[in-house]
């Protein structure tokens, strides 16, 4: 096992425009080039299925099924380098005869695994997609999900807590909506919500601090990065309270606030306050300017810097191994210096990174340092 997680083999069947694919991949950078619609993003999406959730496009599992599939099932399997021999992990999804969605199956070395979270012991992935270019200018929800992905990549319980909070909140909203409820039951529900909410907020705060530490370290280490340093801030009532109030007290305060706002929440048809409303605010540190006010290229550079810091954060939390990076259309919006800076940083980090682009020229600086692959209509060739 080296300094970085390395996928050495990818097999796809009936995934998007790949009827079947067998690919052998090197550690280090991998460059996928090909025309629009050839299947570059689809391959990255297939690899992203090894994290919990719906992958880097947040698409439906049925949309991933090859449109002319002979059997209603897609499968993705990869081999990763381990101490002695490669470990094979796989995931598949099958459409039922009545068209309803099935849960995704997971397997490790040919044996059924307990859900996708079982992969967390073996692989970590981080992705950056063109859709994320609008992260700073877009909605708070997108930024919150971005933040929670960062948190979940180093704390495997975070997602479970988020789900359990959501579930409790839905129950509360439902009871409020019905207008009649058992007060003591509502008290219990809100107390449980508060417990989860404080745990979520505390984990987010801790993760933000660790991430900020990694960003600041790069800066202090001589500021070699071509990517501007970010200053992070969590905008959320619970997180703000928790910064200066003990957890037990914060929990009681949030439970009380929920209790006091039953009428307002009932009228609004939802729970107005909680960790489901928090936002991640990012500043361009040097310019002391909020990221949303920065130029397109500056925002992209900030985002890349953030993702690289996140990769180092995951590395510290994951046996010192760099996560696999999926960087879709990464060269877009970057000038030549930044592009070269990015390739240098990626090469130095030893991360296995999957880079895509339509133009091979953009990756010239990686000649001799990366595996080059050409994608054509759901088929991949070396070179
Ligand atoms: N379920 C599916 N079955 C078959 N083909 C699909 C399916 N879903 C998407 N496609 C097709 O796969 C093709 C490749 O898509 P992909 O997003 O991977 O292209 P790309 O190489 O990343 O292109 P671009 O450079 O435009 O980003 C598209 O033409 C798309 O229509
Ligand atoms: Mg694409």
Description of the molecule:
With 383 residues, this protein is α/β, with parallel strands linked by helices. It has two domains: 7-124 and 330-382, P-loop containing nucleotide triphosphate hydrolases (Rossmann fold), CATH 3.40.50; 140-282, Glutathione S-transferase Yfyf (Class Pi), Chain A, domain 2, CATH 1.20.1050. It contains nine helices and 15 strands. It is globular and about 65 Å long. Magnesium ion is lined by residues 40-41, 328.
Distance between the termini: 27 Å
Shape: globular
Please give the CATH class of the largest domain: Alpha Beta
How many strands, which pairing sense, and closed or not: the largest β-sheet? 6 strands, antiparallel
Radius of gyration: 22 Å
Structural class: alpha/beta
| N-to-C order of helices and strands | EEEHEEEEEHHHEHHHEEHEHEEE
Mean pLDDT: 94
What percentage of amino acids are in beta strands? 15-25%
Q: Give the CATH superfamily of the largest domain.
A: P-loop containing nucleotide triphosphate hydrolases
Percent of residues in helices: 25-40%
CATH fold naming of the largest domain: Rossmann fold
Bound molecules: adenosine-5'-triphosphate, magnesium ion
Domain count: 2
């Amino acid at each position: 096992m080296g300094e970085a997680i390395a996928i050495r083999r990818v097999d796809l069947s009936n995934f998007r425009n790949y009827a079947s694919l067998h690919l052998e991949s090197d550690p280090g950078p991998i460059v996928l080039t090909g025309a629009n619609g050839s299947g570059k993003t689809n391959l990255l999406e297939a690899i992203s299925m090894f994290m919990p959730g719906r992958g880097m496009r947040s698409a439906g599992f049925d949309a991933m099924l090859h449109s002319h599939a002979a059997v209603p099932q897609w499968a993705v399997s990869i081999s990763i380098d381990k101490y002695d021999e490669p470990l094979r992990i796989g995931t598949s999804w099958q459409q039922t005869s009545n068209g309803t969605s099935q849960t995704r199956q997971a397997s490790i070395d040919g044996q059924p695994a307990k859900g996708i979270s079982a992969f967390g012991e073996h692989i970590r992935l981080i992705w950056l997609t063109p859709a994320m270019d609008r992260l700073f200018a877009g909605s708070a929800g997108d930024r919150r999900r971005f933040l929670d992905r960062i948190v979940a990549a180093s704390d495997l319980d975070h997602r479970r807590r988020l789900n359990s909070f959501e579930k409790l909140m839905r129950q509360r909203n439902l009871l409020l909506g019905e207008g009649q409820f058992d007060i003591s039951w509502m008290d219990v529900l809100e107390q449980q919500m508060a417990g989860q909410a404080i745990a979520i907020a505390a984990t987010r705060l801790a993760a933000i601090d660790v991430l900020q530490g990694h960003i600041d370290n790069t800066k202090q280490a001589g500021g070699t990065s071509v990517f501007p340093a970010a200053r992070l801030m969590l905008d959320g009532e619970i997180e703000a309270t928790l910064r200066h109030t003990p957890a037990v007290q914060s929990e009681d305060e949030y439970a009380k606030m929920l209790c006091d706002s039953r009428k307002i929440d009932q009228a609004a048809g939802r729970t107005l306050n909680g960790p489901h409303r928090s936002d991640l605010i990012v500043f361009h540190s040097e310019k002391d300017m909020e990221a949303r006010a920065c130029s397109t290229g500056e925002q992209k550079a900030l985002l890349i810097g953030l993702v690289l810091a996140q990769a180092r954060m995951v590395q510290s939390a994951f046996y010192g191994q760099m996560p696999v990076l999926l960087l879709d259309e990464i060269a877009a919006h970057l000038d030549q210096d930044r592009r070269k800076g990015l390739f240098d940083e990626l090469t130095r980090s030893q991360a296995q990174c999957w880079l895509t682009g339509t133009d091979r020229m953009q990756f010239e600086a990686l000649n001799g340092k990366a595996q080059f692959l050409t994608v054509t209509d759901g088929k991949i060739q070396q070179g």
